[in-house]
Each structure stands twice: as structure tokens, then as C-alpha cells.
Queue: 2 jobs
Job 1
Amino acid sequence: MKYNLVEMFVNDEIKEAALRVLESKRYIKGPETKSFEKEFAEYVGAKKAVTTSSGTTALWLIYDALGIKDGAEFIAPSHTFIATVTPAMHMGARPVFVDVDEKTYTLDVDEVRKKITPKTKAIVAVHLYGHPADIKPLKEIAEEHGLYLIEDCAQAHGALYEGKKVGTFGDAAAFSFFPSKVMTVAGDGGMVVTNNEEIGEKIQILHDQGRREKYTHEYLGYNFRMSEILAAVGRVQLRHLEEWIRRRNEIAKLYSEMLHDVVKVPEVMPGARHVYYVYTIRAKNRDVFREYLAKNDIATGLYYPIPVHLQPAIKQHISPQPLPITEKIVKEIVSIPMHPQLSDEDVEHIANKIVEFYR
Ligand SMILES: Cc1ncc(COP(=O)(O)O)c(C=O)c1O
């Protein structure tokens, strides 16, 4: 399509970084992953970062390190990508799904309160689409009930809540560098960040076969390491991240100005910086709308048409309770092209087509 949902960024700097590592012949556990961890931790404002093989394995390490397993319950939204919950479920934990706020598409704080039981061990906040969840009240609830607060930042690199980066509010946070994300490593990759040194150290050990030293394995660990080549690419991408977030915000502003009369456009809560991983509107006659845009060479995406609690894989394990807002919005949401390489003319063209459809 002429107007893709996302576009990859490859420049000479990235090619040189990848080639440099290839020629160094050091492919794991070297200086690039170390530097990427240090630079990413500094960017987010966290004490510790650990590179991982994906966002899913980043979450897995957090759940394992915090003991979200073996019958523990954890609160999570259903309006998210399934990997928010599957790693903990593999270890025997049980998700308790909570509805989202219709404006921000993130956890409804009042609903969270209602779903806490004596078995609850953690709250998982997902900063969906790049908009921060209402993390302060969630932190208060977690503190009040002695629960862990975990942040799924897979879609929200650089998002701000009251001026502070997401990923620094909870006990630990997971980022994804899957190729469509706000920044990538040109492959699968992820990062755990935390301000808790004990948790950080445990995750560091777990992600490399449960060992601190070569021949002694303290925990049943994993190989969830990131390659040096990917870390080198990630370091270059990180240097562009702020400029990309600025451009994503300019594009979103232009879309919203042109579209707010015809569709429901994204809302940004006071004190929040949205990073627009995706620009999601609510569309009437969604299927016809998508077909029309496809005919006009404009891609669309659904994040996500089937909520997690209604997925066949999840229903085999738990009987879902209804989530009215989630079940309503998944029928209306649709994401339109959003990436920093779109020009103002591209955005105006796409927005004009949408206006034309609804008028
Ligand atoms: C909200 C959310 N959580 C977790 C993940 C898992 O990340 P990954 O695809 O890097 O394993 C993703 C991304 O796909 C995501 O969007």
C-alpha cells in the first residue's frame, strides 16, 4: 500500500552499527547490550535495565522474579495484546480481567479496586497505544493492598505521566522492541527496567540461565538474552526516539484537527504525553470503512478485535466475566497510518479520505 500503518527506519548509522558488531565477532553478552541497558535506563530514569529477547520474555522475567505464579491472581486489562498475561499463566498464575476507561483505553481504576481478592498479588498496568495508564492511583491501590505494580510499556517508550516516564512508577516494567513499535532493534527484543536493585539483579540472573557466574546456577533460569547486533541497532534508534515522538505528536495533532468532527479521535489526559504507537479512532461501519481506505491505498489495523478474555486459549483456562466497555470498543476501534516518516501532505490526504467517507 502507498500509506502503510508503520514504516521501518534504516539509515547508514544503523547499517554501520550492525556491521560493526558482525565484524567484531562478539554476538552475545558484550559491550553493546551493556551500553544499551545503561543508556535505556538513563533515558527512562530507572536504576537498572536488562535486555531481553522480546517484550514477552521481559514480562516473563518480571512475573517469575516477583512470584506471580502458582495460583496467584493478578489484575490486568483484557483490552491489550495477549502477551500481557500469557507468561504468568504459563507459570500457573490466574489473570483477573478488568475493564478499561473508555477515554484512554487503559485500566479503569474503580474497577481495579472491585476485583482485588486475598489471592491478588499484582496489578499490571498497560500503557496502551502509547497513552499512560492512570498510574498514580493504581500505585496507591497497590501500596494500600501490598500488591506489586507491573507496567507493560511495550507500546509506550517515552510516554510521560505528570512529566515522568512510564516504566518508573511500578516495581518493574517491560518494554518491547518488536519491529512495529515506537522504537525497535530490527528484530525481536525487549527490556526490563526497575528501580528496585534486588529485583533487577534477580532478573539479570534469570535471563541468562539463572547464573551470576559461568558454572553456578542459582535459579532455574532461561536464555532470554538479546543479541549484540540488535542492541547496537537499538542504541541508534534510542538516539532518535525523542525526535520521533515529537513528529508522532505533530501528526496526531493534524489528524485530530481534521477528523474530530467525523470520528472519535484519541484523547490525551491532562499531564500525559501520548507517544502514539498507534493512532486509533472509533469508526462506524468499520468493515466498509476499512475496505474503502484499502481501495484508496491506505492501510488500517485493529488493536485488538478480540479481547484477551474472549480468546479461545484463555477461555480454556478461565470462565470470562463480561467486560462491557472492552466488548463494546473492540467493535469500533481502528488504527490508521502512524509513523514519523509520514509528511503533512500524507496525513492531510489520509484525513481527507476519511472525511469524504463519513460525509
Ligand atoms: C501491550 C503488549 N504487551 C506485550 C507485548 C509483547 O511484546 P513482544 O512482541 O516483543 O514479545 C506487546 C507487543 O507485541 C504488546 O503490545
Job 2
Amino acid sequence: MTEVMSEQTEKERYIRAYGAMMLSRTLDKKIMTAQRQGRVGFYTPSIGQEAAQVGMSMAMDKDDVFFQYYRDLALMIHRGVPIELIINQILGNAQDEAKGRQMPSHLLARDYNFMSVQSPVATNLPLAVGAAYASKYMNENKIFVASFGEGSSSTPDFHAALNMAAVFNLPVLFFCENNGLAISLPVEKQTKVEIWKKADAYGMLGIKADGNNVIETFKAAREAVTHIKEGKGPVLLEVRCYRMGPHSSSDDPTKYNADIVKEGSERDPIIVTEELLKGLGFLNEEQIAMIRSESNRIVNEKFEQMEKIPPPDKETLFDDVYSELNWILREQKGEIL
Ligand SMILES: Cc1ncc(C[n+]2csc(CCOP(=O)(O)OP(=O)(O)O)c2C)c(N)n1
């Protein structure tokens, strides 16, 4: 009985993972199209990194905290962040948690333990380390995840963060989503050493996994979580995936000779996951078609609804900085009302 139950749970868990990947892919394409139509200002697509993000997310607990980066859409969706919240931020409308003040694609979701994305790459790593330090001091049992691309490993922040996390034995998972490119720069020109191997230099565990394989990434992340929870210190987990689109909506990859994977090809993580889950008897073609069409319906419906929400009120510009406005700001506020 127990065995049947756990098999069922595993099946449900993977179907949910696939559902999150598909919803993310659908929303990603919708936002990119809307950007091309002038309805969205800017976007950094997640396409190609869905299995990596969802595989890692599957290993994390509800209370764990995320210092994510600008490509982590599938991660957020798998952790239950409603797509309405994501769309509101992308549009910067009146219901956006950041009141329209952040760049689109710089998501946050306070109630789901997602901090706000920062534009300078790898600045989220020392922040995750600081938060983990405080959490350990308060005897909490949380893991702090800092995600980033392989190019971000060339920054001083990467090295400072790994060093401090290891020295203080902090509960941090450094999650490197290696998509092979930092805008136009291939990883071979970025570093001579595989990213996960750099863990050794700081005295922490390094793990590498196939980020196109949701099951393999989940197992690698689970190993990392066990290590951290046993108090053995932080882990650097590198997962290899592929970029399937431009770096951002402002980028044109045809201008450089990049390996951009085509949707539907054998390196597309959605296709890889479908094959894996069909092989395990967890999914069939009919269910796949159903999940695809439901994702389309939900994304189109929600996007249309959220687009009807007006921009934030002009006066909200003056909120959240000073407890009381000084005379200059009072005057400026008076001028725009
Ligand atoms: C400190 C800093 N340097 C440069 C940039 C410009 N920049 C934005 S994204 C990016 C590439 C980052 O590549 P990677 O870390 O591999 O992540 P990916 O975008 O490939 O997912 C660069 C250089 C920046 N935002 N911050």
C-alpha cells in the first residue's frame, strides 16, 4: 500500500512539474510576443531553462528563500507564484507589488519567499549569504537559494559570496544555470574551469547535473539539500541547459554566432521531459495535449485581464521612501496631482 502511494505521489509530483514547465513556456512566449507588439517594455526569456529550474525547485521546502535571477520564471511558477502577480510586474500596473518601479522581468513575490531581482549580475549572491547568516544565527532551518548564470561566476561578488558562505558554514545553495552564453560570450571564453569545480577552491561541495533532465536535476538538488540540512555547509550546484531565445528582448543573437536551440528539438527540455515521463508511464499524448491547451487558455485569459488594470497612481511615486515628506517633495507631489 505504501509503495503504491509513493509511486502515485511521485507520478503526481512529476506531472505537476511538467505542468509548471509548460505554463512557464507558454507565458514566456506570450510575454515575448507582447514585447514585440509594444505592449511590454523589456523581457528576459526563460525558454530552455524550465527543467533546470523546476528540477531544483522540486527539492526545496516551503520555507526556503530565493534570491533568484531574471530568468527564473519556471522556478517561480513551480513554487506556486500566481501568474497574475508575474504579469502585473511585467506590465508595471497598479497591482504590481513593486508599484511599477522595477524594470520588467525583475520579479519579486514576497509571500512566496522570492526577493526582488537586481540588474547587476551576481549581486544576489552576497545578499543570500547575508540572509543565511542571519537565519543561522536565529536557529532557523531554512535554505537560501541564489541562482545565476555561468557568466556571473566571473564577478567579484561570486567569489566573495562563496568564500563567506563556506567559512561560516551557511545554508546556501548556489544554483548555476549554465546556458552556455553570457549574452554573446560563450562559456569557453568565460572560464577555463567547469563552474561546479570552483566549489573546491572555497571548501564546499560542488555538484554537476544535466539541467535538461528534470529528474537528474531534482536528484542532484536533493543531494545538495541533504548536505546543507546536515550542517555540512553550502553547495554549488551547476546544471547545464541551453538558451533557446535571445538573451533579452533587446538582443539579436543573429548578430553573433551562437548555439540557439530550436523549440521542439531534441535539446528542448519540454520535449526531453515529455519523453522521460512518457517512458515512466506518467504521461501520455492526450494529457500532454490537454496541459498545452489549458496553459494557452490560462495565459491568454490572464494576460488580457491584467492588461486592463491601469498604471499605478502618480501619487504612489512618493510612497515608501520617507515616513514624512519634506517640503520639496510635498511641493512636487502637489504639482503632479
Ligand atoms: C555586474 C554586471 N556586469 C554586466 C552586466 C550586463 N549583463 C547583463 S546580463 C549579462 C550576462 C550574464 O550572463 P549569465 O550570468 O551567464 O546569465 P544568462 O543571462 O546567460 O542567463 C551581462 C554581462 C550586468 N547586468 N551586471
